[in-house]
Amino acid sequence: MDIVNPALDDYLLAHCTPADEILRDLVEETHERVPDFPTMQITHDEGEFLTMLVRLTGAETAVEVGVFTGYSSVCIARGLPAGGRLIACDVSEEWTSIARRYWQRAGLTDRIELHLAPALETLSGLPQEEFVDFAFIDADKVGYPAYYEALVPRLRPGGLIVLDNVLRAGRVVDPAAQDEADVAIRKINDTVTADARMESVMLPLRDGVTLARKRA
Ligand SMILES: C[S@@+](CC[C@H](N)C(=O)[O-])C[C@H]1O[C@@H](n2cnc3c(N)ncnc32)[C@H](O)[C@@H]1O
């Protein structure tokens, strides 16, 4: 199922702040080197959306779960102020080695800390206090419920968690779609909606994006 009418895809991309040369090169290199492209990397309009959310929330400390080759981390880190910090979680040395080169090129290495380990280990090892302003979850779908539960207590009141792929190309409403990832995404979608600690909205941006804000 197309969440957005394909006839509108190019129009949407053409009516958002254009990607700079660094992001365009990153897309091209990812396309060449990673056969799973384009399903893994976020699109440019979503990247702009992340930068804007980070700026609008005034976030200084961010967490990303799922770096891949670095598109979303560049977009998040660019929204942070000087002295800001992005805790970036992934398990792939190969893919994040590409990300690291682009962080360098974009002048963002001072604000991105890469943690190469299963994300739940990294998140569980973070201080158990409310210090995170912004988080983006875009890793293995089965892990979403656990990543969310690890992040909410560490989120500052007013802080934002953004979850990607919450519509799974429409599989969330297909009763025949019952793989582990489908079940996990339905579970996290229901959990977020019912979570009294949070207020949330699900948007039909690309494959579906949920914004969940911790009540202040
Ligand atoms: C969809 S991609 C992320 C795309 C990225 N946000 C971007 O904009 O290009 C998912 C990433 O999650 C990572 N991942 C999968 N399982 C993980 C885990 N248990 N812990 C941390 N990262 C994981 C994969 O290595 C992969 O790089």
UniProtKB/TrEMBL annotation:
Annotated InterPro entries: Cation-dep_OMT, SAM-dependent_MTases_sf, SAM_O-MeTrfase
GO molecular function, one term: methyltransferase activity
Keywords associated with the record: Methyltransferase, S-adenosyl-L-methionine, Transferase
Top-level taxon of origin: Bacteria
PROSITE patterns cross-referenced by the UniProt entry: SAM_OMT_I
Pfam annotation, one family: Methyltransf_3
An annotated GO BP: methylation
Record-given protein name: Class I SAM-dependent methyltransferase
Source organism phylogeny: Bacteria, Bacillati, Actinomycetota, Actinomycetes, Kitasatosporales
